[in-house]
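re: ur question from the group chat, yeah i did fold both. here u go
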Amino acid sequence: MASGWKRAVGNMRSFVGNSMGGLRGGSSLASWLVAGSLAYFLWVRPSQQLRREQEAKIREKAALAAADPYRYVEKRKPIPDPQETGLVYGNKNRVKGPE
């Protein structure tokens, strides 16, 4: 009975070792440390910085709008009305007659 769980533990250790590339000991730990730090500095950290910058811009716009609502202007183009510009199928860019 005791050999059953020992075999299971041994198989699990073998599986974990093989899934980590077959490296053992210090070289395995060092390679995972290098890979993890590269992943952090190349992917995780830049995405966190970008998110922080975007949040800071949003907070800055909100503070400016709250301080003086008449001074703040959203810099977006207005969405055109498709009925007036003739973009809807069937309108054919007809000009309205005198009213």
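okk and heres the other one u asked abt
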Amino acid sequence: METQMKFGFKDKKRIFSVIIAVILMGLSLSFLIRLNFGTDPCSAMNLGISRHLHLSFGTWLVLFNFILFILVILFDRSQIGWGTLANMLLVGYSADFFRWLFDFILPDNAFTALSIRIVVLIPSLLIFVLAAAVYMAVDLGSAPYDALSFIIASKLKKIPFRIIRIAWDMTACLIGFLLGSTIGIVTVLIAFLLGPVIAWVKEKINRFL
């Protein structure tokens, strides 16, 4: 952890990229929540939990990440970096802030029409996937939710990582669904798009950085 932190201070471009990426994830997530086509599995689960605990999404996400963060420290500190902290602290509160801002600016029926919801969905989904890919591609640590899937895979070496990750995400989806979150087309698209986009972004961003 200490090595990654020191490296992070020296690499300002990567830190700046991570901060912008996680804020954009929060921005796009604020729209995805309003559009009600589903979100990524982790957000779907945490939206359901936060509603039942009567906490804001951002506050619960910090608490949830802190719990998982302790487990990551115990089992594999190499997964932790500046990107881990940025994701833990900024995604949820950014989503809360932008939801508050757009609720204040936009009328209540702004996303009632299906055509408008679809038009807004496309850029929101693209921004979320690209921002998530940038955050992962700069290699400054994983979010605790993602890090635990890597740790589990390292312990269960006979099982392919993609199977473990699918089971991990499906568990999150099931919890979210049982707690009243929408599991929709966006959830499926993120599951299929994120991997290839990460590989493409990583190739591009390495040239820039």
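fwiw on the second one: The chain has one domain: 2-208. The chain has a mean pLDDT of 86. idk if thats what u expected
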